[in-house]
Amino acid sequence: MTSTWLQTLSQAESMIPLLGKLGREKSIKVQLAGNTLMADSVTGLMAAFDSYPELDLAQVYQVLEQVLASDNSHTTIELESLIAEADVASVLAAAPKTGSETPVVLYGFGRIGRLLARRMCSLGHTTPGMALAAIVVRKACDDDLTKRASLLKYDSVHGVYDGLVKVDEANQSLIINGSPVKVIYASDPAEVDYQAYGIDNALLVDNTGRWRDHDGLSVHLNRPGIERVVLTAPGKEMKNIVFGVNDNDVTEDDRIVSAASCTTNAITPILSVLEEKYGIVSGHVETVHAYTNDQNLIDNIHKGDRRGRAAGMNMVMTETGAAKAVSKAIPSLEGKLSGSAIRVPVINVSIAVLSLNLKSATSVDDINQLLKNASNSAELTGQIGYSDGADAVSSDFIGSQQAGILDSLSTKVRGNQAILYVWYDNEYGYSCQVVRLMEKLAQANLKKAVLLEDQAA
User: Fold this and answer.
1) Boundaries of each Glyceraldehyde 3-phosphate dehydrogenase NAD(P) binding domain copy (predicted)?
2) Which of 2, 60, 223, 368 sits 20 to 30 Å CA-CA off 170?
3) Average pLDDT of the segment spanning 361-384
């Protein structure tokens, strides 16, 4: 170990308490080129700083101290933009001040619901402007709370949750890292009065997939205490948002929005970069997808015919609307993409094969460099990942936080025809995208609340 490395290690260790206080006490998330600096891992900080050797870590420490001493809270701080400013204090003083947070309700607690809870409540991670307040489920058994806690803590795919989960039977709650989360039992959204549980102006995330149109989801919106609704599936009669691509399309009038699908989130950011650089004439998306809970474990009747065959021992041809859904985020691709899917016997991580006809010729090196640069940009670092691992396989991408990761060694180009392979954790990578959208909506709610307070004053 060199003295320089040890010095960097020491500086990274010194930042852990600062980042922890910023998260715990002020709900401030610190980002470096779009990557969140976590307070739970020195090695994680070392890896983040390793990509930016030009950073003066002593200056980074000083900036973090200034942020902690400021009046700012419930927001995201872009570290590189603050470092670039000559007067950090003035920039912080000019930023909006907030002092409250948006409660979040998870309606449904299956694969995505539990991963959203893990992401929101993970040690060292901050979700500015919001806090998990309640989970709504149907009661499954007498010891339902204990079962829910166990499923959150222990996961066959994503491992043991690195946090404390306790059951509070008396208050019908889960205690996640010290924060109480009410568990509300209901079989229909029309049954729940959230204000009766002390929840108001909440952001509700529907993870059930049961309702996918505006009228169906409006039942949530019409309940006391609910301000906005996010659907974790493709939606009809609402905006389908892929964070990093068209999240700026969300307005105050959009009370119900969809976070689209895992596949749409995986491919849309990469397609947006290629469309801007080269232009896309046409293409086909083939997704080789992990089997899902709606398939049968053994052969049985299923409304999806082929999905009725045993998921663990068959490759199953099925359909996907992801290719067509891309145009909801990138209108210029309307009618240009087709798509199909094959479900395969792996429990998590999928790969999308993009076969594209571009408007201009290119090369493997040019496309890979373009997308590598995008993966390092503050705008798309959370959406596009880049892999050049010679022995990379699907399990390597379990737990990936990016929406999609380019397998650069598999890129094929012949003139204006390109084939790209994009890995994605169809559970956790997608959940991270949903949380990013939730953060944006929550912070928009805070800004609205501050504006109303200022007008009243």
Assistant:
1) 102-262
2) 223
3) 95
3 state SS of 183: strand
* CA neighbor of 173 nearest in space, from 134, 137, 207, 142: 134
3-class DSSP state for residue 79? helix
Query: Considering 59, 78, 94, which residue would you say is the last residue of a domain?
Result: 94
Q: Hey, CA dihedral for 79, 84, 88, 94, is it positive or negative?
A: negative
219-247: pLDDT as tens digits: 999 999 999 999 999 999 899 999 999 99
> How far is the C-alpha of 166 from the C-alpha of 178, rounded, in Å?
9
- Helices 42-50 & 3-26 angle (0-180, nearest 10): 110
DSSP 259-310: ---HHHHHHHHHHHHHHHHT-EEEEEEEEEEE--TTS-SSS---TTGGGGS-
Report in angstroms the alpha-carbon separations of 245 from 175, 373, 380: 35, 16, 8
The number of domains in the chain is 3
Cβ–Cβ under 8 Å, residues 404 and 429: yes
Pairing between strand 337-344 and 280-290? parallel
Active site residue 262: yes
Scored b (16 or more CB within 10 A) or e, 315-354 reads ebebebebbbbbbbbbeebeebbebebebbebebbbbbbb
> For residue 209, is it left (φ>0), alpha (ψ between -120 and 50) or beta?
left
pLDDT digits (tens, 9 = 90+) for 195-226: 999 999 999 999 998 898 999 999 999 999 99
The region, left, alpha or beta by phi > 0 then psi within -120 to 50, assigned to residue 94 is alpha
Q: Which amino acid is at 311?
A: A
Say if CB 204 and CB 108 are below 8 A apart. Answer: no
Q: How many CA atoms within 13 Å lie on the side-chain side of 73?
A: 14
Which position among 121, 141, 262, 432 bears the catalytic label? 262
In tens, the pLDDT along 85-144 reads 767 777 777 766 665 789 999 999 999 999 999 999 987 788 888 999 999 999 999 999
Please tell me whether residues 213 and 269 are part of one structural domain. Answer: no
Q: Take residue 351 and report the two structure tokens written for it.
A: 């790969």
Q: Is residue 246 in a domain? A: no
Neighbours of 251 (CB within 10 A): 9
Same domain, 307 and 162: no
